[in-house]
Write a structure and sequence with these properties.
The chain has about 475 residues and is an alpha+beta fold. It has helices at about 75-100, 110-135, 140, 145-155, 175-195, 200-205, 235-245, 255-260, 285-295, 375, 420-425, 445-465, and strands spanning about 10, 45, 50-55, 135, 160-165, 170, 210-220, 220-230, 300-305, 310-315, 320-330, 330-335, 340-345, 350-355, 360-365, 365-375, 390-395, 400-405, 410-415, 430-435, 440-445. β11 (about 320-330) and β12 form a beta hairpin.
Length: about 475
């Protein structure tokens, strides 16, 4: 049948070209066949009209370099059609603006303003369309779990049922590639630590088959992935006792239930009595939290003894663009991710308290929020060095809050993130950079890093005071 074959004709080096198939009654004259010159590179012609030159077949014995690893993405034709239509609209707007630019007169000012607004609208739609192309359903990450859970259940002798929901929730391809390993570790922990053996579950009045539920949904400008189980849950008393034994926390320190649960993400921390090749080695959970934070996300834990646990992962939809609040410190402009901002306020002097070690705390309702002067953090000259004259931007990550001291609040806008580490080097307190509309470069603040730095300074001050 037609279109069901592929023809490849390859010229062998130093040999006469192979004769094409001809009827038996017609024989090509071998004398008339031209001999290939050994110095000439001969092409390999394939049926798909592509040509490959066998370079350096005789002159070099070195193997050709391996092709660079590349990745691809499958895109629906509807998304491609939408992108083509938007490009067409952009071309029309550009042509209109170009015509207005010729012999411009003040009478054309209204048409120019309308054209610029149309250009802005087309650019936004084009940006959203391109970002949709990068989005994939999270089912690509969830599809690995049915077999993995079946194998782990057989290995541990437990009965486990997997429930999936929200598989069509879309996530940026880059985020999805990097969230796979943390999800695997959380699911393995749920089977090893959370789900009880069938006999133990029946003794507690539960169904002999445990359940693990993976759920994904959009919330605001982020995606939430939940890993839930109906197992034995986390024991806060046991976790706290282990933390005190390891010296992670002070015995006299009062911790909330959420603070105790966050201890499981400390490096080397494990309450498992038996070490297995599945979990309980004291490694992994700290890496899980760090990987999630590197993606600009955070993880929360909810648990009740005897009823199960839920690990809730909050992630940005994309790593390429973020919604940011522009702030000014002296002559520099910084960007704070909007998702991290709790509130902005004018400082009241009576709410400021200075503790040992020079740490300044601001009383915000029920919380004492450490104040971080940005001008001191990055060695700048600020307009306002007195707390009473400055603005405080309260940010939060992982349940911890700090206040960033700034001179002024500017606009809110979407910014394209440029990696500082790949183009320069890693800078403490900075997660990336972007280029503003006036062409200047603005740094994006690393909120988790600033919070961790404030926590370290507080611990050091507490140690010196002790």
């Amino acid at each position: 049948m037609l279109d069901e074959c592929k023809l490849t004709i390859t010229q062998l080096s130093g040999a006469a070209p192979a004769a094409a198939e001809t009827p038996a009654a017609v024989k090509p004259d071998p004398v008339s066949e031209p001999q290939a010159s050994p110095e000439v590179q001969q092409p390999v012609i394939t049926a798909d009209n592509s040509t490959d030159i066998e370079a350096e077949a005789k002159t070099s014995k070195a193997a050709p370099p391996a092709p660079a690893a590349s990745s691809s993405i499958r895109v629906g034709i509807d998304k491609v059609d939408s992108l083509i239509n938007l490009v067409g609209e952009l071309v029309i707007t550009q042509s209109m603006l170009s015509e207005l630019g010729n012999n411009f007169e003040m009478e054309k000012l209204d048409r120019l303003s309308n054209g610029l607004e149309q250009l802005l609208q087309n650019t936004k739609e084009l940006q959203e369309s391109v970002m949709r192309i990068r989005m994939l359903p999270i089912s690509f990450a969830f599809n690995r779990f049915p077999r993995m859970i079946r194998d782990l259940a057989a290995k541990t002798g437990k009965q486990v049922e997997l429930k999936l929901s929200g598989e069509q929730t879309e996530l940026d391809k880059t985020v999805m590639e990097q969230i796979g390993d943390p999800l695997v570790h959380l699911v393995r922990n749920a089977i090893d630590h959370g789900i009880e053996p069938a006999e133990e579950r029946q003794a507690q009045g539960k169904h002999s088959e445990g359940s693990i539920h993976l759920n994904a949904f959009h919330k605001g400008g982020s995606i939430v992935i939940e890993i839930s189980d109906d197992g034995r849950g986390l024991n806060p008393e046991k976790i706290l006792a282990k933390a005190i034994e390891k010296g992670v926390v002070d015995p006299s320190e009062q911790l909330s239930k959420e603070d105790i649960f966050s201890l499981i993400f400390e490096a080397g921390f494990s309450t498992a009595e038996v070490v297995s090749d599945i979990s309980g080695r004291g490694v992994g959970m700290d890496v899980v939290r760090r990987n999630i934070q590197d993606l600009g996300g955070r993880i929360e834990v909810e648990s009740e003894i005897g009823k199960g646990s839920t690990f809730r992962v909050h992630l940005p939809l994309t790593l390429a663009i973020l919604d940011g609040q522009l702030v000014r410190v002296g002559t520099e402009t910084y960007i704070i991710p909007l998702i991290s901002i709790v509130e902005s306020l004018q400082i009241k002097s009576e709410q400021v308290n200075e503790v040992s070690g020079g740490m300044v705390l601001y009383r915000l309702r029920e919380d004492n929020v450490p104040v971080i002067p940005i001008y001191q953090e990055f060695g700048l000259e600020a307009d306002n060095t007195e707390l009473a004259d400055a603005l405080l931007v309260v940010v939060e990550d992982g349940g911890n809050k700090i206040g960033l001291l700034v001179d002024d609040l500017l606009a809110q806008q979407q910014v394209v993130i440029k990696s500082l580490e790949s183009n320069y080097q890693r800078v403490e307190g900075i997660s990336g950079a972007t280029i503003l509309g006036d062409g200047s470069v603005s740094m994006i603040l690393d909120i988790p890093g600033l919070i961790q730095g404030a926590s370290r300074r507080a611990q050091n001050n507490h140690g010196r005071a002790a």
